[in-house]
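Work package 3, deliverable 3.1, input record:
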Amino acid sequence: MARKLQITVNHDLCVGNAMCETIAAKVFILNDDRQSEAKYPDADTEENILEAAENCPVSAIKVVDADTGETLFP
Amino acid sequence: MVTTVADDMFTGDAISDPYSYYGKLRDEDPVHWNELYELWVVTGHDDLVWMTRHHELFSSEFWKRDQRSPYPAIDESDMGLYQFMREFFMDWFIQHDRPVHTDQRKVVHKWFNPNSMELWRPMVRSVIKDCLDEADASGHMDVMRDFATPLPLFVIAQMMGMPHYDRKFIRSMAEKLLFIGRGETDRMQPLTEAIKEFIEYLTPLVEEKAAKPVDENDLLSVLASGEKTGALTRDEVVADAILLLLAGHETTINLICNGTLAFTQHPEQWKILKEGRLEEPDAITRATEECLRYDPPVKSIQRVASVDAELGGKLIREGDRIRWFISSANRDPKKHDNPDTFDISRWPNTHVAFGSGIHHCLGATLARLEGQEAFKALAERYDNIKVETNEFEYQPSITFRSLKTLPVSLT
Protein backbone atom coordinates (compact mmCIF):
# COMPACT_ATOMS: atom_id res chain seq x y z
CA MET A 1 0.00 0.00 0.00
CA ALA A 2 1.19 3.49 -0.84
CA ARG A 3 2.52 5.46 2.09
CA LYS A 4 0.59 8.44 3.40
CA LEU A 5 2.01 11.82 2.46
CA GLN A 6 1.76 15.18 4.15
CA ILE A 7 2.01 17.92 1.54
CA THR A 8 2.30 21.62 2.35
CA VAL A 9 2.42 24.64 0.08
CA ASN A 10 4.12 27.76 1.47
CA HIS A 11 1.88 30.67 0.51
CA ASP A 12 4.60 33.24 1.18
CA LEU A 13 6.33 31.69 -1.81
CA CYS A 14 3.56 30.29 -4.05
CA VAL A 15 3.07 32.49 -7.13
CA GLY A 16 0.21 30.49 -8.64
CA ASN A 17 2.35 29.14 -11.47
CA ALA A 18 0.03 26.11 -11.34
CA MET A 19 2.57 23.66 -12.74
CA CYS A 20 1.74 21.43 -9.74
CA GLU A 21 -1.90 21.53 -10.77
CA THR A 22 -0.89 20.63 -14.34
CA ILE A 23 1.18 17.64 -13.20
CA ALA A 24 -1.02 16.37 -10.35
CA ALA A 25 -4.45 17.92 -10.88
CA LYS A 26 -6.24 15.61 -8.47
CA VAL A 27 -4.02 16.67 -5.57
CA PHE A 28 -3.32 20.38 -6.09
CA ILE A 29 -6.25 22.77 -6.33
CA LEU A 30 -5.97 26.53 -6.75
CA ASN A 31 -7.80 28.56 -4.09
CA ASP A 32 -9.61 31.88 -4.57
CA ASP A 33 -6.27 33.74 -4.57
CA ARG A 34 -5.09 31.32 -7.26
CA GLN A 35 -2.51 29.85 -4.94
CA SER A 36 -2.05 26.11 -4.74
CA GLU A 37 -3.41 23.94 -1.94
CA ALA A 38 -2.68 20.24 -1.57
CA LYS A 39 -6.33 19.39 -0.96
CA TYR A 40 -6.27 15.69 -1.72
CA PRO A 41 -2.83 14.27 -0.84
CA ASP A 42 -3.93 10.69 -1.50
CA ALA A 43 -5.39 11.33 -4.94
CA ASP A 44 -2.31 10.62 -7.06
CA THR A 45 0.86 8.53 -7.06
CA GLU A 46 3.85 9.51 -4.96
CA GLU A 47 5.89 9.77 -8.17
CA ASN A 48 3.53 12.36 -9.68
CA ILE A 49 3.34 14.33 -6.45
CA LEU A 50 7.13 14.47 -6.16
CA GLU A 51 7.37 15.53 -9.79
CA ALA A 52 4.88 18.33 -9.11
CA ALA A 53 6.93 19.44 -6.08
CA GLU A 54 10.18 19.33 -8.02
CA ASN A 55 8.73 21.46 -10.81
CA CYS A 56 7.47 24.21 -8.56
CA PRO A 57 9.49 27.20 -9.81
CA VAL A 58 9.71 28.74 -6.33
CA SER A 59 10.20 25.57 -4.25
CA ALA A 60 6.99 26.20 -2.32
CA ILE A 61 5.96 22.54 -1.97
CA LYS A 62 7.16 20.30 0.83
CA VAL A 63 6.40 16.57 0.90
CA VAL A 64 6.79 14.54 4.08
CA ASP A 65 6.09 10.90 4.94
CA ALA A 66 3.12 11.40 7.24
CA ASP A 67 3.97 8.39 9.42
CA THR A 68 7.73 8.67 9.84
CA GLY A 69 8.13 12.43 9.37
CA GLU A 70 10.84 11.81 6.78
CA THR A 71 11.19 14.69 4.30
CA LEU A 72 10.75 13.40 0.75
CA PHE A 73 11.01 16.81 -0.93
CA PRO A 74 12.94 19.05 -0.99
CA MET B 1 -9.81 60.04 -12.14
CA VAL B 2 -7.67 62.92 -13.26
CA THR B 3 -4.00 62.40 -12.69
CA THR B 4 -1.22 64.93 -12.64
CA VAL B 5 1.08 62.54 -14.47
CA ALA B 6 1.71 63.19 -18.18
CA ASP B 7 1.08 60.23 -20.49
CA ASP B 8 4.43 60.22 -22.31
CA MET B 9 6.38 57.33 -20.78
CA PHE B 10 9.60 58.06 -22.65
CA THR B 11 10.53 61.41 -21.12
CA GLY B 12 13.95 61.68 -19.51
CA ASP B 13 12.33 61.77 -16.06
CA ALA B 14 10.18 58.65 -16.58
CA ILE B 15 13.19 56.73 -17.90
CA SER B 16 15.71 57.85 -15.27
CA ASP B 17 13.31 57.56 -12.32
CA PRO B 18 10.44 55.15 -13.03
CA TYR B 19 9.81 54.90 -9.29
CA SER B 20 8.57 58.49 -9.08
CA TYR B 21 6.67 58.39 -12.38
CA TYR B 22 4.85 55.07 -11.91
CA GLY B 23 4.70 55.52 -8.15
CA LYS B 24 2.74 58.74 -8.63
CA LEU B 25 0.39 56.98 -11.03
CA ARG B 26 -0.07 54.16 -8.50
CA ASP B 27 -0.92 56.67 -5.76
CA GLU B 28 -3.24 58.83 -7.91
CA ASP B 29 -4.87 56.44 -10.39
CA PRO B 30 -3.67 52.84 -10.05
CA VAL B 31 -5.61 51.57 -13.07
CA HIS B 32 -5.03 54.46 -15.45
CA TRP B 33 -6.22 54.96 -19.02
CA ASN B 34 -3.28 56.42 -20.94
CA GLU B 35 -4.96 58.38 -23.71
CA LEU B 36 -1.77 58.97 -25.66
CA TYR B 37 -1.05 55.24 -26.12
CA GLU B 38 -4.66 54.00 -25.77
CA LEU B 39 -3.45 51.75 -23.00
CA TRP B 40 -4.44 50.75 -19.47
CA VAL B 41 -1.53 51.26 -17.09
CA VAL B 42 -1.71 49.08 -13.97
CA THR B 43 0.70 50.08 -11.21
CA GLY B 44 -0.42 48.59 -7.85
CA HIS B 45 0.79 45.28 -6.41
CA ASP B 46 -2.58 43.69 -5.65
CA ASP B 47 -4.10 44.62 -9.03
CA LEU B 48 -1.04 43.25 -10.80
CA VAL B 49 -1.16 39.95 -8.94
CA TRP B 50 -4.93 39.60 -9.43
CA MET B 51 -4.63 40.30 -13.12
CA THR B 52 -1.73 37.95 -13.80
CA ARG B 53 -3.50 35.18 -11.92
CA HIS B 54 -6.70 35.67 -13.94
CA HIS B 55 -5.17 34.70 -17.26
CA GLU B 56 -8.59 33.71 -18.58
CA LEU B 57 -9.62 37.41 -18.46
CA PHE B 58 -6.32 38.99 -19.48
CA SER B 59 -4.78 37.27 -22.46
CA SER B 60 -1.07 36.95 -23.18
CA GLU B 61 -1.78 36.76 -26.92
CA PHE B 62 -0.92 40.42 -27.18
CA TRP B 63 0.53 40.49 -30.67
CA LYS B 64 -2.26 38.35 -32.06
CA ARG B 65 -5.16 40.22 -30.47
CA ASP B 66 -4.10 43.87 -30.29
CA GLN B 67 -5.94 45.74 -33.05
CA ARG B 68 -4.90 49.30 -32.19
CA SER B 69 -2.09 51.29 -33.77
CA PRO B 70 1.44 50.71 -32.50
CA TYR B 71 2.39 52.74 -29.45
CA PRO B 72 4.32 54.94 -29.49
CA ALA B 73 3.69 55.62 -33.17
CA ILE B 74 6.02 54.24 -35.83
CA ASP B 75 6.85 55.48 -39.33
CA GLU B 76 3.87 54.84 -41.62
CA SER B 77 6.20 53.22 -44.16
CA ASP B 78 7.19 50.57 -41.56
CA MET B 79 3.73 49.05 -41.10
CA GLY B 80 4.80 46.04 -43.18
CA LEU B 81 7.75 45.48 -40.83
CA TYR B 82 5.41 45.88 -37.86
CA GLN B 83 3.23 43.11 -39.23
CA PHE B 84 6.28 40.90 -39.79
CA MET B 85 7.39 41.53 -36.21
CA ARG B 86 3.93 40.72 -34.82
CA GLU B 87 3.81 37.43 -36.66
CA PHE B 88 7.23 36.49 -35.34
CA PHE B 89 6.35 37.32 -31.72
CA MET B 90 3.09 35.37 -31.97
CA ASP B 91 5.22 32.22 -32.15
CA TRP B 92 6.75 32.78 -28.71
CA PHE B 93 5.31 30.36 -26.14
CA ILE B 94 4.77 33.24 -23.71
CA GLN B 95 2.42 34.81 -26.28
CA HIS B 96 -0.13 32.01 -25.79
CA ASP B 97 -2.90 31.26 -23.34
CA ARG B 98 -3.91 27.94 -21.86
CA PRO B 99 -3.97 25.17 -22.96
CA VAL B 100 -1.37 25.86 -25.68
CA HIS B 101 0.87 27.85 -23.33
CA THR B 102 1.02 24.99 -20.81
CA ASP B 103 1.84 22.39 -23.48
CA GLN B 104 4.61 24.55 -24.89
CA ARG B 105 6.07 25.66 -21.55
CA LYS B 106 6.20 22.06 -20.38
CA VAL B 107 8.77 21.29 -23.09
CA VAL B 108 11.39 23.34 -21.22
CA HIS B 109 9.86 23.92 -17.76
CA LYS B 110 11.72 21.02 -16.16
CA TRP B 111 15.05 22.26 -17.51
CA PHE B 112 14.64 25.43 -15.47
CA ASN B 113 13.31 23.96 -12.22
CA PRO B 114 15.31 24.66 -9.04
CA ASN B 115 16.93 21.21 -8.82
CA SER B 116 18.01 21.24 -12.46
CA MET B 117 19.43 24.74 -12.16
CA GLU B 118 21.60 23.80 -9.14
CA LEU B 119 23.72 21.69 -11.49
CA TRP B 120 24.84 24.87 -13.23
CA ARG B 121 26.03 26.63 -10.07
CA PRO B 122 29.67 25.45 -10.34
CA MET B 123 29.88 26.72 -13.90
CA VAL B 124 28.38 30.08 -12.92
CA ARG B 125 31.01 30.39 -10.15
CA SER B 126 33.78 29.61 -12.57
CA VAL B 127 32.65 32.25 -15.09
CA ILE B 128 32.37 34.81 -12.29
CA LYS B 129 35.89 33.98 -11.13
CA ASP B 130 37.27 34.53 -14.63
CA CYS B 131 35.48 37.89 -15.00
CA LEU B 132 36.62 39.17 -11.61
CA ASP B 133 40.20 37.88 -11.96
CA GLU B 134 40.45 39.96 -15.08
CA ALA B 135 38.98 43.03 -13.35
CA ASP B 136 41.44 42.61 -10.46
CA ALA B 137 44.37 43.15 -12.79
CA SER B 138 43.38 46.80 -13.27
CA GLY B 139 41.30 47.41 -10.17
CA HIS B 140 38.53 48.84 -12.32
CA MET B 141 35.66 47.49 -14.37
CA ASP B 142 32.55 48.54 -16.17
CA VAL B 143 30.11 46.32 -14.31
CA MET B 144 27.82 46.28 -17.32
CA ARG B 145 30.42 45.46 -19.97
CA ASP B 146 32.85 43.32 -17.97
CA PHE B 147 30.67 41.39 -15.53
CA ALA B 148 26.89 41.71 -15.77
CA THR B 149 26.80 41.05 -19.53
CA PRO B 150 29.38 38.29 -20.09
CA LEU B 151 28.21 36.11 -17.20
CA PRO B 152 24.58 35.39 -18.15
CA LEU B 153 25.41 35.49 -21.85
CA PHE B 154 28.06 32.82 -21.38
CA VAL B 155 25.70 30.67 -19.32
CA ILE B 156 22.68 30.74 -21.66
CA ALA B 157 24.87 30.26 -24.75
CA GLN B 158 26.56 27.31 -23.06
CA MET B 159 23.19 25.79 -22.08
CA MET B 160 22.03 26.03 -25.67
CA GLY B 161 25.24 24.62 -27.11
CA MET B 162 26.18 27.78 -29.02
CA PRO B 163 29.84 28.06 -30.01
CA HIS B 164 31.70 30.54 -27.79
CA TYR B 165 32.68 32.74 -30.74
CA ASP B 166 28.98 33.36 -31.45
CA ARG B 167 28.39 35.13 -28.16
CA LYS B 168 29.28 38.52 -29.60
CA PHE B 169 26.80 37.98 -32.43
CA ILE B 170 24.07 36.88 -30.00
CA ARG B 171 24.61 40.00 -27.91
CA SER B 172 24.53 42.34 -30.89
CA MET B 173 21.27 40.73 -32.07
CA ALA B 174 19.84 41.03 -28.56
CA GLU B 175 20.70 44.74 -28.48
CA LYS B 176 18.69 45.29 -31.65
CA LEU B 177 15.78 43.16 -30.40
CA LEU B 178 15.64 45.40 -27.34
CA PHE B 179 14.23 48.14 -29.57
CA ILE B 180 10.92 46.37 -28.87
CA GLY B 181 10.63 48.42 -25.68
CA ARG B 182 11.72 51.74 -27.16
CA GLY B 183 9.95 54.74 -28.59
CA GLU B 184 11.83 55.79 -31.74
CA THR B 185 9.52 55.96 -34.75
CA ASP B 186 12.03 54.03 -36.89
CA ARG B 187 12.57 51.25 -34.32
CA MET B 188 11.04 48.58 -36.58
CA GLN B 189 14.18 48.69 -38.74
CA PRO B 190 16.77 47.35 -36.24
CA LEU B 191 14.17 45.14 -34.60
CA THR B 192 13.14 43.28 -37.74
CA GLU B 193 16.73 43.13 -39.00
CA ALA B 194 17.66 41.29 -35.81
CA ILE B 195 14.69 38.93 -36.09
CA LYS B 196 15.66 38.00 -39.66
CA GLU B 197 19.36 37.54 -38.84
CA PHE B 198 18.57 35.54 -35.71
CA ILE B 199 16.20 33.24 -37.63
CA GLU B 200 18.87 32.73 -40.28
CA TYR B 201 21.45 31.91 -37.63
CA LEU B 202 19.29 29.51 -35.61
CA THR B 203 17.46 27.63 -38.36
CA PRO B 204 20.37 25.32 -39.31
CA LEU B 205 21.26 24.77 -35.62
CA VAL B 206 17.67 23.76 -34.83
CA GLU B 207 17.58 21.56 -37.93
CA GLU B 208 20.70 19.77 -36.72
CA LYS B 209 19.33 19.21 -33.20
CA ALA B 210 15.90 18.13 -34.45
CA ALA B 211 17.47 15.44 -36.65
CA LYS B 212 19.20 13.78 -33.67
CA PRO B 213 17.77 12.00 -30.62
CA VAL B 214 17.11 14.43 -27.76
CA ASP B 215 20.17 15.32 -25.66
CA GLU B 216 18.91 16.09 -22.14
CA ASN B 217 22.06 18.16 -21.45
CA ASP B 218 21.40 20.58 -24.29
CA LEU B 219 18.61 23.13 -23.93
CA LEU B 220 18.24 23.67 -27.68
CA SER B 221 17.92 19.93 -28.22
CA VAL B 222 15.30 19.72 -25.44
CA LEU B 223 13.40 22.62 -26.99
CA ALA B 224 13.58 21.02 -30.44
CA SER B 225 12.11 17.82 -28.97
CA GLY B 226 8.87 19.77 -28.64
CA GLU B 227 8.46 19.41 -32.37
CA LYS B 228 8.51 15.62 -32.11
CA THR B 229 5.80 15.63 -29.44
CA GLY B 230 3.65 18.01 -31.45
CA ALA B 231 3.79 20.80 -28.85
CA LEU B 232 5.75 23.13 -31.15
CA THR B 233 6.15 23.73 -34.87
CA ARG B 234 9.61 24.26 -36.38
CA ASP B 235 9.00 28.01 -36.62
CA GLU B 236 7.97 28.05 -32.95
CA VAL B 237 11.13 26.17 -31.92
CA VAL B 238 13.26 28.76 -33.72
CA ALA B 239 11.25 31.65 -32.23
CA ASP B 240 11.46 30.20 -28.71
CA ALA B 241 15.20 29.63 -29.11
CA ILE B 242 15.53 33.35 -29.81
CA LEU B 243 13.33 34.12 -26.80
CA LEU B 244 15.43 31.91 -24.51
CA LEU B 245 18.67 33.45 -25.76
CA LEU B 246 17.36 36.97 -25.25
CA ALA B 247 15.40 36.60 -22.01
CA GLY B 248 18.05 34.18 -20.72
CA HIS B 249 20.58 36.94 -20.34
CA GLU B 250 19.09 40.44 -20.72
CA THR B 251 17.15 40.36 -17.48
CA THR B 252 20.01 38.97 -15.39
CA ILE B 253 22.34 41.63 -16.77
CA ASN B 254 20.06 44.22 -15.21
CA LEU B 255 19.73 42.33 -11.92
CA ILE B 256 23.51 42.26 -11.48
CA CYS B 257 24.08 45.83 -12.63
CA ASN B 258 21.17 47.43 -10.75
CA GLY B 259 21.91 45.36 -7.65
CA THR B 260 25.59 46.32 -7.62
CA LEU B 261 24.62 49.98 -7.99
CA ALA B 262 22.19 49.67 -5.05
CA PHE B 263 24.95 48.27 -2.83
CA THR B 264 27.35 51.08 -3.75
CA GLN B 265 24.66 53.57 -2.78
CA HIS B 266 23.85 51.83 0.52
CA PRO B 267 27.16 51.08 2.27
CA GLU B 268 25.40 49.90 5.45
CA GLN B 269 23.61 47.18 3.45
CA TRP B 270 26.88 46.26 1.77
CA LYS B 271 28.37 45.82 5.25
CA ILE B 272 25.51 43.51 6.30
CA LEU B 273 25.99 41.48 3.13
CA LYS B 274 29.73 41.18 3.67
CA GLU B 275 29.34 40.17 7.30
CA GLY B 276 26.56 37.76 6.36
CA ARG B 277 24.85 38.37 9.69
CA LEU B 278 21.30 37.35 8.86
CA GLU B 279 19.41 34.24 9.84
CA GLU B 280 18.00 31.71 7.38
CA PRO B 281 17.40 32.40 4.60
CA ASP B 282 20.96 33.70 4.43
CA ALA B 283 22.12 37.22 3.56
CA ILE B 284 22.90 36.37 -0.06
CA THR B 285 19.43 34.93 -0.71
CA ARG B 286 17.69 37.85 0.97
CA ALA B 287 19.93 40.40 -0.73
CA THR B 288 19.21 39.01 -4.18
CA GLU B 289 15.47 39.14 -3.56
CA GLU B 290 15.76 42.71 -2.31
CA CYS B 291 17.72 43.72 -5.41
CA LEU B 292 14.94 42.17 -7.50
CA ARG B 293 12.36 44.17 -5.56
CA TYR B 294 14.17 47.48 -5.23
CA ASP B 295 15.35 48.03 -8.80
CA PRO B 296 13.82 45.22 -10.88
CA PRO B 297 15.33 44.24 -14.27
CA VAL B 298 11.97 44.30 -16.06
CA LYS B 299 9.72 47.31 -15.67
CA SER B 300 6.56 46.21 -17.42
CA ILE B 301 4.71 43.51 -19.38
CA GLN B 302 1.67 43.63 -21.67
CA ARG B 303 -1.68 41.88 -21.77
CA VAL B 304 -4.91 42.31 -23.71
CA ALA B 305 -8.38 41.86 -22.21
CA SER B 306 -10.03 38.74 -23.63
CA VAL B 307 -13.44 39.71 -22.18
CA ASP B 308 -14.95 42.76 -20.50
CA ALA B 309 -13.46 42.78 -17.00
CA GLU B 310 -13.37 45.00 -13.93
CA LEU B 311 -10.03 45.92 -12.41
CA GLY B 312 -9.56 48.40 -9.59
CA GLY B 313 -13.07 49.73 -10.14
CA LYS B 314 -12.50 50.40 -13.85
CA LEU B 315 -14.24 48.61 -16.68
CA ILE B 316 -11.73 47.20 -19.10
CA ARG B 317 -13.28 46.30 -22.44
CA GLU B 318 -12.54 43.18 -24.45
CA GLY B 319 -9.62 43.96 -26.76
CA ASP B 320 -8.22 46.76 -24.57
CA ARG B 321 -4.50 46.62 -24.14
CA ILE B 322 -2.90 46.75 -20.71
CA ARG B 323 0.63 47.25 -19.38
CA TRP B 324 1.40 46.30 -15.79
CA PHE B 325 4.34 47.85 -14.01
CA ILE B 326 6.62 45.89 -11.75
CA SER B 327 8.59 49.05 -10.87
CA SER B 328 5.65 50.59 -9.02
CA ALA B 329 4.15 47.34 -7.69
CA ASN B 330 7.46 46.49 -6.00
CA ARG B 331 7.37 49.87 -4.24
CA ASP B 332 3.69 49.68 -3.27
CA PRO B 333 3.35 50.88 0.35
CA LYS B 334 0.21 48.76 0.73
CA LYS B 335 2.40 45.69 0.26
CA HIS B 336 5.88 46.62 1.50
CA ASP B 337 6.89 48.59 4.62
CA ASN B 338 9.16 51.52 3.77
CA PRO B 339 9.06 50.49 0.11
CA ASP B 340 11.65 53.01 -1.07
CA THR B 341 14.23 51.73 1.40
CA PHE B 342 16.82 49.21 0.23
CA ASP B 343 16.82 46.71 3.09
CA ILE B 344 18.34 43.29 2.49
CA SER B 345 16.94 41.87 5.71
CA ARG B 346 13.39 42.13 4.31
CA TRP B 347 11.62 38.74 4.52
CA PRO B 348 9.40 37.34 3.18
CA ASN B 349 10.00 39.46 0.13
CA THR B 350 6.88 39.19 -1.97
CA HIS B 351 8.08 41.23 -4.93
CA VAL B 352 6.76 40.60 -8.42
CA ALA B 353 10.01 40.99 -10.35
CA PHE B 354 9.24 37.72 -12.15
CA GLY B 355 5.53 38.39 -12.56
CA SER B 356 3.01 35.96 -11.13
CA GLY B 357 0.58 33.25 -12.17
CA ILE B 358 0.99 30.76 -14.99
CA HIS B 359 3.37 33.06 -16.86
CA HIS B 360 5.74 33.54 -13.90
CA CYS B 361 9.20 33.89 -15.43
CA LEU B 362 10.51 30.55 -16.69
CA GLY B 363 14.11 31.55 -15.99
CA ALA B 364 13.54 32.94 -12.49
CA THR B 365 15.67 30.29 -10.78
CA LEU B 366 18.55 30.83 -13.20
CA ALA B 367 18.41 34.60 -12.68
CA ARG B 368 18.37 34.10 -8.90
CA LEU B 369 21.29 31.69 -9.02
CA GLU B 370 23.40 34.02 -11.14
CA GLY B 371 22.48 37.02 -9.00
CA GLN B 372 23.29 35.18 -5.77
CA GLU B 373 26.66 33.99 -7.01
CA ALA B 374 27.54 37.41 -8.46
CA PHE B 375 26.74 39.33 -5.26
CA LYS B 376 28.42 36.66 -3.13
CA ALA B 377 31.63 36.85 -5.16
CA LEU B 378 31.68 40.65 -5.04
CA ALA B 379 31.15 40.65 -1.27
CA GLU B 380 33.84 38.04 -0.67
CA ARG B 381 36.40 39.72 -2.89
CA TYR B 382 36.03 43.48 -2.30
CA ASP B 383 35.79 45.79 0.70
CA ASN B 384 34.78 48.76 -1.40
CA ILE B 385 33.14 49.12 -4.76
CA LYS B 386 33.16 52.76 -5.74
CA VAL B 387 31.17 54.11 -8.66
CA GLU B 388 33.34 56.28 -10.89
CA THR B 389 30.63 58.45 -12.34
CA ASN B 390 27.96 60.85 -11.15
CA GLU B 391 25.71 60.33 -14.12
CA PHE B 392 23.57 57.27 -14.57
CA GLU B 393 22.15 56.87 -18.02
CA TYR B 394 19.46 54.28 -18.69
CA GLN B 395 18.34 52.73 -21.98
CA PRO B 396 15.17 54.54 -23.14
CA SER B 397 13.03 51.41 -22.76
CA ILE B 398 9.56 51.00 -21.33
CA THR B 399 10.26 47.31 -20.75
CA PHE B 400 13.77 47.02 -19.30
CA ARG B 401 15.57 48.89 -16.54
CA SER B 402 19.03 48.91 -18.10
CA LEU B 403 21.99 51.08 -17.25
CA LYS B 404 24.19 51.93 -20.22
CA THR B 405 27.41 51.64 -18.21
CA LEU B 406 28.50 51.32 -14.59
CA PRO B 407 32.21 52.07 -14.19
CA VAL B 408 33.57 51.18 -10.74
CA SER B 409 36.86 50.90 -8.87
CA LEU B 410 37.46 47.80 -6.77
CA THR B 411 39.49 47.62 -3.58
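Chain B has a mean pLDDT of 96.
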